[in-house]
Structures are given as C-alpha cells and as structure tokens.
Amino acid sequence: MREPLVIGERIWLRLLSEPEPVTYVSRVEDVSETSVAIQRPMVQRQPIALPRGTGLELEVRRSKPPGEGVYRAVTEVVGATVDPLPLVFLRMPDQWHRIQMRHYVRVPAFLAVAVRPQTPDEAEWLEGKTVNVSGGGCQVVLPESLDRDQPVEIVLSLPSRDVRATGAVRRMEKAEDGTGWRLAIEFTDISDKDRRHVIRFAFQRQIELRKKGMA
C-alpha cells in the first residue's frame, strides 16, 4: 500500500489468537512513523481486551483510485490509553499485502436473491437463489442467462437484513438441473456496512458448517 494510513479511516482487525476469524471494526486516530493509534474496539458497548503483545491482522479497504483494493498486514499491540480517549497503539506494520476479492471466505448458502440488469430501458428483476456467498460476490441460479460483464443490481436477502449492491456477471453456465442458469456475480459497488453484514453472515455460516462436519 503506497499511501500511509489516514486519520479517520475505518480499519478492521482480527485477533491472531482466536480460533475463529472474528472481525472487529475500529478507526485510525493518529499515525506516526512507528505506530498507529486506533479507537479501542467495542462489542455491545464493552471494550475488547487488547493487552500489550497481542497479535493482530489489520485490514484496510480502499474503494477509490489510486490504490483501490483490500490490504492486510500483521502487527501487535504496543500500548493503550484510557484518558482522555480510550486508544490502542499498534506497531506500524512492516509490509501490507493486497488481497483479491476471491480471498473472502466463500460459503455455500441458499438465500433469496433478486438481480436486475442495468440497461437504459430498466429491465425487470429476475428472482432466484444463491449457491454460495462471500464478501466479494455470490453465485446465483436465475431463470435467464445474462451476458458476461453485464452490470447488474442485486438484492441479497440475508437472515438479518436485505443487502443491496451493484455487480458484474463474471461467469455463466447452464444449471445442473437444466431449469435455469448459474451465474457468478462480483460486487463492484457495495457499502462498507452491507459488505460487513455479508462477511459476518459468511463467517457465521462457516462456523455452523464446521460444527456439522461439513466444512
């Protein structure tokens, strides 16, 4: 990542010691050559314990050029303050790695979905089901096929809420049962809030499948 972390920028972190990839959200409050100060992450208004030496994976998401993409790095907690603000200080990462969208956790899931091609004449919505879901996109079965790279609007019905995004068709093939089409759609524009809901669902779904011995 060419640019340094930006004050006020949202940042995601995962504890390296946790067996499941639980993600916490924070914000960059200050940046120096050697450290990064972030807000202490909270869950249900309770602060997450991050003692000195705790290993973390950081994630930053840039949606505008130059440098758009998802970046991750490993660091550790080097200190904390309570007053005047509850801050956690992290060692400035030595190196950032750009992560492709396909590296999001992808899980099998059968959810209601509606897809509409973005065309000048406002095409009708096509209703179907997802085959799998990730923070970077989903695979769906629809009654009709669409062209490769066709821009689309998509409404994904998660158990907690409906998520809206725009995307592009990356692959298509006839469904196995011959009654529809299987399309792989990549999210091209989705709000951070909605993407977090999709990622949270994927992680929870992955845990459920592991407990059932299916993942």
Give an overview of the whole structure.
This protein is mostly beta strands and 215 residues long. It has 2 domains: 10-99, Pnp Oxidase, Chain A, CATH 2.30.110.10; 107-211, Thrombin, subunit H (Beta Barrel), CATH 2.40.10.220. It contains 1 helix and 16 strands. A hairpin with an 8-residue loop joins strand 11 (112-117) and strand 12. The radius of gyration is 20 Å and the shape is elongated. The mean pLDDT is 86.
List the helices and strands and how they pair.
Elements: E1 10-15, E2 24-31, E3 35-39, E4 42-43, E5 46-47, E6 55-62, E7 69-81, E8 87-91, E9 97-99, E10 107-108, E11 112-117, E12 126-134, E13 137-142, E14 151-157, E15 162-174, E16 181-189, H1 192-211
Antiparallel strand pairs: 1-2, 1-6, 2-3, 3-8, 4-5, 6-7, 7-8, 7-9, 10-12, 11-12, 11-14, 12-13, 13-16, 14-15, 15-16
Sheet bearing the most strands, described?
6 strands, antiparallel, barrel
Beta strand %? over 45%
Nearest-integer average pLDDT = 86
The tally of structural domains comes to 2
Number of strands: 16
The portion of residues assigned to helices is under 10%
CATH fold group of the largest domain: Thrombin, subunit H
User: What is the overall shape?
Assistant: elongated
Rounded radius of gyration (Å): 20 Å
- Compute the separation of the termini in Å: 33 Å
Kindly report the spatial arrangement of strands forming the biggest sheet: 1-2-3-8-7-6
CATH architecture of the largest domain: Beta Barrel
Which secondary-structure class do the elements indicate? mainly beta
The CATH superfamily name of the largest domain is predicted glycosyltransferase like domains
